[in-house]
Amino acid sequence: MKGTEDKARKLIGDRGNHFLKRMEGETGANISACFQCFRCTNACPISHYMDIKPHQVIRYIQLGWREELLQSATIWVCLSCEMCTTYCPNEVQVAETINHLRNLAAHSSVAPREKQLALFHQTFLEALHHFGRVNEFWLMGALNLKPGVLKEKIRTGALAEEMALGLLLLRKGKLKLMPHRCRAMAEIRKLYRQQRGEIG
Amino acid sequence: MKLAFYPGCSLEGMANDYARSITAVFRDLDIELVEIKDWSCCGATAAHSLNELMAVTLPARNLAEAEKMGLDIVAPCANCFNRLRFSQIMIQKKIIDVPWEVTAKSTVHEMTRFLAGPEMLAKISARVRKPLKGLKVVCYYGCQMVRPPRITGFTDYENPRTMDRIVAAVGAEALDWSYKTTCCGASIGIGRRDIQESLTMRLLDKARQTGAEAVVVSCPLCQANLDMFRRNKTGANIPVFYFTELMRIAFEPGRACRRWFRMHITDPVPLLSKKELLR
After folding, report:
1. Residue B34: phi, psi to the nearest 5?
2. What does the radius of gyration of chain B's CA atoms come to, in whole angstroms?
3. Which of A12, A85, A93, B152 keeps 20 to 30 A from A182, CA to CA?
């Protein structure tokens, strides 16, 4: 991280442990109990791909470095496989904490570092809103129609691979083309409206 | 015996073979599965990633429907099971209110654990017509089924044995290996193929080193990830079975199984014919 030293001095001075208290309150995780034993990072199957390692995430929260965390790739590549939570000796709920940071990032103005993954989650919830159940074929189709996705896939050559895979799956009978429409859609859409803060 | 069945979205599409084998196996075991009326998606990873409230309320709808039926729930998909349990615990502890009438008292069974109880195992062994002699497999459990233990209720989360017991009951040999609960990458392949491939490749390499001829799974997403992985065009891949498919082969050899195997990317028929398990 560039210029973290300056920032650290400033952030700790300005905000104290406000961010730590907020995270502890919202997740119920015992973040202050972390003594940096690295067990979470050692257990993590993909810590190699993370810019901020799991034990650092906890430390950053203790220091109040919110912006660094929300801009990190870590919060998007985390698989929620719960290895870190399971092996933490102090029962700091690391995976749940990272998941909550992902929630915060999704509801903030910070652009997600892993755009495709963030878009995928969003498209998933939209598909759920449309049909009540999620259909793989429609999900991938809708994802490709999101701005920038198709262009990126053509650039990296992933589109050709995906088309070939799609055809293979279709031939194998693994794709259901027409999604099932849940009859209780009214209930689910009402739920979505309530979550968005509109009165159902 | 009667159970409310929550199939989950995958079983309608990619894992249709799993759905069919479950139906067949439970019919063979005389357990009635009643599909939850008008069930909806549990929200999976997307819901808890973007909106923690939805992660509780979406599964709660299905819990409420099952409660109306007055039955215990069984979920075959690892992630669905995890989300249903999570939602149930949050409701029981009264942490989050949901807009449906639900007490969350009914039990949510994980399918392999349900079938690996001593009574069910005896029933399975009694039903076997053709033991799968000489078939060496490794059982792969994945993350969501066993972790975190406070949600799933698994006490042996480091070395789960439920599927090993079922596979042994139908006569195959379940080998010990150390990657039982290592993550397969889940849906991260959508945005980061490199991460997913490295994780999946490690699992398949280890399975081959252990001497397994096939991998046995219970999660639709794990199956898809392991089955679709291609190292290169010539590399031999090992078949990935759902545990219910193996059960069905042992129960009714040579009946209707082939149709499910056509849905697999890595064709398991050569292996099964070699072991003379299909007649």
Report:
1. -105, 115
2. 18
3. B152
CA distance A92 to A76: 20
Give dist(CA A1, CA A114) in Å, integer: 18
Query: Taking the CA atoms of chain A, what radius of gyration do you get in angstroms?
Result: 20
Same domain for B150 and B250, yes or no, is: yes
Residue A148 CA from chain centroid, whole number = 19
Pair (B43, B69) in one structural domain? yes
Domain membership of residue B123 (yes or no) is no
In B161-190, the residues whose Cβ lies within 8 Å of chain A are: 182-183, 185-188, 190
Question: What ipTM does the predicted assembly reach?
Answer: 0.91
Residue B275's pLDDT band, with cuts at 50, 70 and 90, is confident
Coil, strand or helix at B214? strand
* pLDDT reported for residue B73: 94
Report the CATH superfamily, name and number, of domain A4-106.
Alpha-helical ferredoxin (1.10.1060.10)
Of the candidates A82, A116, A136, the beta carbon closest to that of B14 is on: A136
pLDDT, tens only, A95-139:
999 999 999 999 999 999 999 999 999 999 999 888 888 988 999
pLDDT value, residue A197: 62
Q: Do B23 and B77 fall into the same domain?
A: yes
CB contact under 8 A, A174 and B14: yes
Q: Do A195 and B51 touch (CB under 8 A)?
A: yes
Give the sign of the dihedral formed by CA B245, CA B247, CA B250, CA B253: negative
Q: Which of A173, A182, A195 sits opposite B38 (nearest CB)?
A: A182
- The single residue listed with the structure tokens 């992630």 is B79
Name every chain B residue with its beta carbon within 8 A of the beta carbon of A51: none
- For residues A153 and A159, the answer to whether their CB atoms sit within 8 Å is yes
Nearest to B55 by CA among B66, B63, B43, B64: B43
CA distance B244 to B167: 9
Residues in B touching A132 (Cβ below 8 Å): 40-41
